[in-house]
Amino acid sequence: MSTPENPAQPQPQDSAETGVWERLERAAEASPAVSAEAPRSPAEHPQTQGEPASSVGEEPRVFTGSTSAVRRIPTVGIFTLRELMFLITSAAVVLLSFAPVISIRQVRVSYTLWDLQFVPMPIAVGILPLVALLLVLLRRLVPRINWRVGTLSVDQFASITAVIASVSYIVFIGSYALLTAPGQLTWTLPFAAMFSLLMLFSSTFAPYLPLYRTEFAERGEVPADPTARPVIPIARRPRPQGAWGPHPAEGTAYPAGYAPAAAAPAPTHVAPYWVYSFSPRPVYAPDGSAVLFEMGPTAWVLAVEDRGHSLVLRADDGRIGILYDLSNLTRG
């Protein structure tokens, strides 16, 4: 057994003790180097500043978004600032629809939009904004349900509602200002039109405004509804193109000055139809030997076959005959 360099160090008795002492010596030599290192700044630390360290046995969490971008979205309680503005303006539009819009001072009579019996206005400025308001509320209060109106999302329906309400108020004010006497329109209409325009800025124009743009930029991507996806392109069918150029003639060759006799017209077979005659006409037997019956102005007769120059008729009793006189015949 070799003698250690330090005589003051106790002598190990076996190889197991020797291994323990060697490990202790290496740990003692490494401890000054660790203590001599300066503590790293938070910027040099690989862990993100402000993010709690994961405990032992805990799976690392992956953060896909930008923390600074999420913090820039202005919120008020459980709603974003844009949603709160839409709720306030849509509620104001709904409430102002019940306020008088026309006042006739001479007879002291006032009319609301619901009293004018003009159906599109209450729907445009009363019912639709109320439905959009409720959908925005329910989307935050009951988030586990995917609230939609058909194929429209809540924001799409709110945007359409704002456009309809603002256009309806502008058209209503312009038309009634021309049709009614001055002073009959009340203050309700300008205020309601202003709130409908604010609805427009908090829904339709919101993705383009710097104050609300971040809310839409931070949303995740989801597959579009099948009805909102691009349409399938329709392949054009190739058009038949005629062959131009010389090609062999078809048919029978005849000598010069010879004209073949015209062939008899082929019988035309069509579906049965009714015929009528204003005067009595004889209907002959199929062999042409005798007259079977007459068709006349008293009733219609069923034609079961059209041979071009004649008709095969069937009487009510089932007899079959041929009509050769086809002039001035009414066909039904």
How would you sum up this structure, described in words?
- With 332 residues, the chain is an alpha+beta fold.
- Among the domains are: 149 residues, no CATH class; 59 residues, SH3 Domains (SH3 type barrels, Roll), CATH 2.30.30.40.
- The protein contains 7 helices and 13 strands.
- The strands form 5 sheets. It has a 5-stranded antiparallel β-sheet, with no helix packed on it. Strands 1-2 form a two-stranded antiparallel sheet.
- The N terminus is likely disordered.
Write the layout of secondary structure elements.
Elements: H1 15-36, H2 67-71, E1 75-76, E2 79-80, H3 81-96, E3 102-104, E4 109-111, H4 120-141, E5 148-149, E6 152-153, H5 154-179, H6 188-201, H7 210-217, E7 273-276, E8 281-284, E9 291-295, E10 301-306, E11 311-314, E12 320-323, E13 330-331
Antiparallel strand pairs: 1-2, 3-4, 5-6, 7-10, 7-13, 8-9, 10-11, 11-12
Helix pairs in contact: 3-4, 3-6, 4-5, 5-6
Shape: elongated
Give the DSSP E fraction (strand runs of 2 or more residues): 5-15%
Average pLDDT for all residues: 76
Major sheet attributes: 5 strands, antiparallel
Order of strands in the sheet with most strands: 12-11-10-7-13
Number of helices: 7
Structural class: alpha+beta
Could you give the count of β-strands? 13
